[in-house]
Amino acid sequence: MDISIYIHFPFCLKKCLYCDFNSLAYSRIPPGEYVAALLREMELRTARLALPVTVPTLYLGGGTPSLMAPELVGRIIDAADKLFGLERDAEITLEANPGTLSLDRLAGYRTAGVTRLSLGVQSFNDEQLIRLGRIHSAREAKESYDSARAAGFANIGMDLIHSLPGETAAIWRTDLSMAVALGPEHISAYDLTVEEGTPFHILRSAGRLHLPDEDEATDMFQDTALRLGAAGYEHYEISNFARAGFRSRHNQVYWRRGAYLGLGAGAHSFFPSPDFGVRWRNAENPERYMEFLAQELLPEEELTAVSQREAMAEFFFLGLRMREGVAVEAFLRSFGISPEEAYPGEMAKLLSSGLLEREGDWLRLSKRGMMVANQVFMRFL
Questions:
Q1: For residue 119, how many C-alpha atoms fall within 13 Å in the half-sphere facing its CB?
Q2: CA nearest 185: which of 131, 233, 251, 135?
Q3: What stretch of H or E contains 236?
């Protein structure tokens, strides 16, 4: 059984103004103690598995995992290999933030076994970085990228965000041009989502956050696809672009409802069996998470069996994020009914309106459908 592993490191130097992830600034928990708890969770999880497994992808996210010393990252990778079994060519990704990196540190991550770096640049505009609450400058972002290359990384992903407060199409085009000039293997270009409970949400509610309007955001989305496509990047998912052979293998597990095991405070897990799947979340508070493990208990919370209706909806709103879409035969095989039977009327409306298109066995979002993807996804919920 293939199971991808996600490791959550919830600590940051500073909480960004748009971030709703499970992360904390200035924790008093030493990273070494937290990693010791992670390793203990790995051991307890291994004892629970009924079948031998292999791990095709390992992803260290956060938070800011690049606050961990390379030695600690190496301990995590070694334990994952020993306890679960990493595939020989496993994709091992570390999220890293400029402002926490040096050439020596990056070289240490390569030695520890990290094969792919996900660099949280977000913008090459210093004013925008300040608005976002980031701790790095545009210069530091470029220096971090150059250091990663010097350290031997041949697979670098770069995260960017558009539709930021006060952003114009010209500012966004400059960000894209600078990213393309550096030449990472993968670019994630997200539109800003203002999540409830974040400082940005409070500012917007008070009328103090001025974002590009819907038409401007749509123009940025379209410009992204055109410019990155012209630069040789495959638009393989709504917000993700890759050079040939450099798609994110780990993220595709999520979009295809593959099995993944989340380790660490607040990490989510999903197994597609028994029946239509089961998902759970670990305790979010790092101290509470560590207390569970100190008592030799798994830190599971919110264990949920997935219903057939929920699984069918996930099949579409996750799978349709991918440019190639979803296979009709796979849906029929998984659920025993066709998409037309599962969603009578809706499927025909989406196809006739041009938001979905069908080619052979595949259903996919049209280009117009990708621009209103959330509206399409709501039809399946």
A1: 32
A2: 233
A3: strand 234-237
Domains assigned to the chain: 4-254 (3.20.20.70), 308-378 (1.10.10.920)
305-351 confidence digits (pLDDT tens): 999 999 999 999 999 999 999 999 999 999 999 999 999 889 999 99
Please tell me the pTM assigned to this model. Answer: 0.96
User: How do strand 86-96 and strand 260-263 relate by DSSP bridges?
Assistant: unpaired
* Residue from 62, 69, 61, 68 nearest 23 by CA: 62
- Amino acid code (one letter) for 231: A
* Matching residue, tokens 């598995």: 49
The C-alpha atoms of residue 267 and residue 261 are separated, in whole angstroms, by 8
Q: Token pair for residue 312?
A: 């069918």
Helix residue ranges per DSSP H, 113-239: 126-132, 138-150, 169-182, 199-205, 214-230
E strand or H helix at 260: strand 260-263
pLDDT in tens, 37-66: 999 999 999 998 888 899 999 999 999 999
- Quote the CA–CA distance of 145 and 154 in Å, as a whole number: 11
pLDDT, tens only, 198-237: 999 999 999 999 999 999 999 999 999 999 999 999 999 9
- Specify the 3-state DSSP secondary structure of 90: strand
Q: Is the CB of residue 57 less than 8 Å from the CB of residue 282? A: no
